[in-house]
Amino acid sequence: MASLFSGRILICNNNDQDELDTEAEVIRRLENRLVLLYFGAGACPQCQAFVPILKDFFVRLTDEFYVLRAAQLALVYVSQDSTEEQQDLFLKDMPKKWLFLPFEDELRRDLGRQFSVERLPAVVVLKPDGDVLTRDGADEIQRLGTACFANWQEAAEVLDRNFQLPEDLEDQEPRSLTECLRRRKYRVEKAARGGRDPGGGCGEEGGAGGLF
């Protein structure tokens, strides 16, 4: 996961806007976590409608007010704002645990092309190893709320096999009788949707319209 941001700076959305400017700091912040890449813009009407849902989703999974232990989840805001002032204004009311790229970093645009983002808002969910779990995160968050995190966690095997020693993987039984069915159900439902977000978004005819 850290390789995605190799040589880059990630900034914490706290009061001091602490910079994670070493690979060790980035690894420490992202390892063993599902990472949400949120592509959005403060001036986008569809983003304005979605972001309260996303904010509530993130807070309910990571804030100790709601959960005894924060979920293994990180979010990086990949700004598509037109100006740095718009980006700063948007982030002002967002959770302090969010991370974001500096406005001047062209990786903001490169990631959109890399993950084939066609409309805003978009949420790309990455496994801890950097592989894509789903590009339809925005749609799933709106439909399922925090319940979709359990689906992602189980599909990515975040807390179990990915972080066990090789010898621990042999003859491992499912964690529950329904685990295999849930994982299969998630993949079948995703395939049935064709991996596309049925909702509209910013851009020409609901598409990117040269967004990146």
Automatic annotation (TrEMBL):
Full protein name: Nucleoredoxin like 1
For this entry, list what GO says about its biological process: photoreceptor cell maintenance
Q: Name one GO cellular component term.
A: mitochondrion
Instruction: Please give the PANTHER family that the UniProt record associates with this protein.
Output: NUCLEOREDOXIN-LIKE PROTEIN 1 (PTHR47109)
The UniProt gene name for this protein comes to NXNL1
User: What residue ranges are annotated as transmembrane?
Assistant: none
**Compositionally biased tracts (Gly residues):** 197-212
The Thioredoxin domain, residue ranges: 1-164
* Domain of life per record: Eukaryota
